[in-house]
Design brief:
Number of strands: 2
Distance between the termini: 26 Å
Helix content: over 70%
Largest sheet: 2 strands, antiparallel
Strand content: under 5%
Radius of gyration: 24 Å
Number of helices: 14
Strand order of the largest sheet: 1-2
Structural class: mainly alpha
Order of helices and strands: HEHEHHHHHHHHHHHH
Shape: globular
């Protein structure tokens, strides 16, 4: 019996080989480069010829004057993105589920999902134009409320909110579709039973829809915890400037400037390695919490 099962499943295992090869080549083989975090690395000498310095790069990293601020910025922006990225799609998906006109619902889904396919290079150019001092947003605020123009991308008080709102605008359509799929999977008999007990639409949503969506909510929340130190390099890199380093500089942009601009490869690798270790710990804790408090397993 085991031989028959193995023979039947062999084509499936063979199909995995190309993907497995690509994963090993591009995800695991480059991990050997983490030894640079413990070296005074020079590209001309390579990994084998560079001097071993132990924990010096990590000590130097924590002695940088802006390290704590960068870490704080990363956590704040990432947590704000996680909260908005969970709550907003959840609300929109529930509201869309109440739209009975199929064509209208499909049109709305297309419109909110479209920004997901655009790169941050394109979207950053659009945002820079509409949020500039003479952009359409400032013109509207000045015309409607008489306020002075606001430099949204150059003001530390506004930059984080611009980052979070623009990220939600770009990505919440994808999560909305995932939540809608979860709603479709809920047994219609539960709604009929709730209606027979006198539950209105709000109570049906609260006692049937949301509990039915809870597994996917827990799953997406758990997966997002691993990104708590990933505030979005491509987005912030295309939007920020030295003026907003105080509130907008994150770990990934610090790694970029340290490694590629200042050519301090060892320090930048140390920062990236520390970030990866912390992210692994956080996602492990979130996975344990998902199993402990929601009795839900990803694997």
């Amino acid at each position: 019996m085991r031989y028959r099962n193995w023979a039947r499943e062999l084509p499936l295992h063979v199909m995995i080989i190309p993907a497995l090869f690509i994963l090993i080549l591009f995800a695991y083989v480059p991990m050997t480069g983490v030894v640079i975090a413990f070296q005074k690395f020079y590209p001309a000498l390579g990994i084998t010829g560079s001097k071993w310095v132990g924990w010096d790069n990590f000590e130097f990293m924590f002695k940088l004057p802006n390290t704590i601020q960068v870490l704080w910025n990363t956590v704040i922006i990432a947590v704000m993105k996680i909260i908005v990225g969970i709550v907003l799609p959840l609300i929109v998906s529930i509201l869309l589920n109440e739209v009975n006109h199929k064509l209208t619902r499909s049109g709305i889904q297309t419109l909110i999902y479209l920004p997901h396919f655009l790169s941050w290079v394109v979207l950053a150019g659009i945002l820079i134009d509409i949020l500039s001092m003479k952009g359409i947003v400032n013109q509207f605020l000045q015309f409607a409320f008489g306020v002075d123009p606001i430099f949204f991308l150059g003001d530390n008080n506004w930059f984080r909110f611009v980052v979070v709102i623009s990220d939600a605008w770009k990505e919440f359509g994808f999560s909305t579709i995932v939540y809608l799929a979860a709603i479709v999977g809920i047994d219609p008999a539960l709604y009929e039973s709730a209606k027979a007990d006198g539950a209105n639409r709000w109570k049906q949503t609260w006692h049937v829809t949301i509990p039915g969506m809870m597994p996917i909510i827990v799953l997406l929340t758990t997966l997002s915890m691993g990104n708590i130190l990933n505030a979005g390099f491509d987005q912030i890199f295309n939007l920020y400037s030295p003026v907003v380093y105080e509130t907008g500089d994150i770990i990934d942009t610090l790694v970029y400037r340290t490694g590629l601009v200042e050519m301090s490869f060892g320090v930048s690798t140390a920062v990236g390695l520390l970030k990866s270790v912390v992210s692994l710990i956080l996602i492990s804790i979130s996975y344990w919490c998902a199993y402990r408090f929601a009795n839900y397993r990803i694997f």
